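User: I'm writing a tutorial on reading structure tokens. Could you give me a worked example: one chain, its sequence, then its tokens, then a sentence or two explaining what the tokens reveal?
Assistant: Sure. Here is the example chain.
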Amino acid sequence: MRSLKLITNGSASGVLSRFASHYNFVVAGGGAGGCAAASNLLKHGTVAVIDPADTHYYQPMWTLVGAGIKTTEQSSKSQSLCVPGQAKWYRTRVEGFKPEKNSVSLFGPFGGEKITYDYLVVALGLDVRFDKVKGLKETLGKNGVCSNYGPGNADYTWKVLSAIKGGDLLFTFPNAPIKCAGAPQKIMYLADAHLRKAGVRDNCSLTYHTALPAIFGVPKYAAALSKLAAEKDCGVETTSHLVEVDGEGREAVFEDMGTGKQTTQKFDMLHVGPPCAPSPVYATSPLADSAGWVDVNKHTLQHNTYKNVFGIGDCNSCPTGKTAAKVAAESGVLYGNVRRLMKGKELKKSYDGYTSCPLTVGNDKLILAEFGYDGAILETLPFNQAKPRWLTYFLKKEVMPPLYWHGLIRGTWRGPGLVRKIAHLGTA
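And here are its predicted structure tokens:
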């Protein structure tokens, strides 16, 4: 008989037979969105969570790890502490979706195990694709080539940065989707602050290469960041994306997005913001849109074809920044709309595209970018958040991590919408 380990309350409790098991809710993915959805939906029926990870990471902390401010260990907890205890945890990967049959197949030693559902939540994130830049995968983690994306990678960023005494430091933003679009330049400002503190900044050149036509996608924050980069003497090359890395030769090749011309630059440190892409397991399924993302209504988060399917987080097609803040705001909308669908009611909860990029800019200060669809400014605090402030840095460093562990993944922190209304006296 084929079998697959079934985890309940974080411990092995038995086996799943090859015959299909049914749940009211199946949650594919155990990251921020998956844990939040599962925690909420447990109030209304049986829940299965499918995720193979042993460790759950608070990924926004990795920028601070790369700057020597936090450690990788501080960014992680056992996944058994994060998946809600009352859910059935299938510690394996999703092999495929058959939404027309309300079925999910699971990867295993023999493959083909299936579970069925009344409602499906897809929360499978995205894939970080270092392999999409020629030579990058082979040299990442050595030769001064680093990235704060991926478990443990930020440790090498700090190792390289802390040893720099002079030279050329390059930071890149890809010509592709990316999670946390602010992260590739945050580390540049933190590097600048470290080098100044170490007394070697005058020996160093810092340059940010971005495939975008501006330093940031929202004009209000782009203006503030452009001014900041100039004040810190950090160069900014727009419409310039990384196409090749020669680690041993310490050379990076960039292509101009407009002309196609390629230039080669020497480096002593190269921090790469990697291209990201939809995961094949959903990108090649009936759930995907033409770009490979889970095809949802951008306001209700309901699948555009399969009405008992919802998508949350990095994997869905909502045209906004892929961040943990996005997940928080989406979680309340998803929960409310699933409940209404269960009652046969119209889906009234509406996601406004809220996302946030807490942009660390050095000297214990931060620009807190908050915006929604089409770049609409959705700032929570009653002052201009494009100005670097100590308070917003404190929120990033000390408040947001416990809010994630004890609020977001528990389904109780659903974004700052209510706080925003109170702070703006109901006008926001």
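What the tokens reveal: The CA atoms of residues 259 and 396 lie 39 Å apart. The first strand starts at residue 4 and ends at 8.
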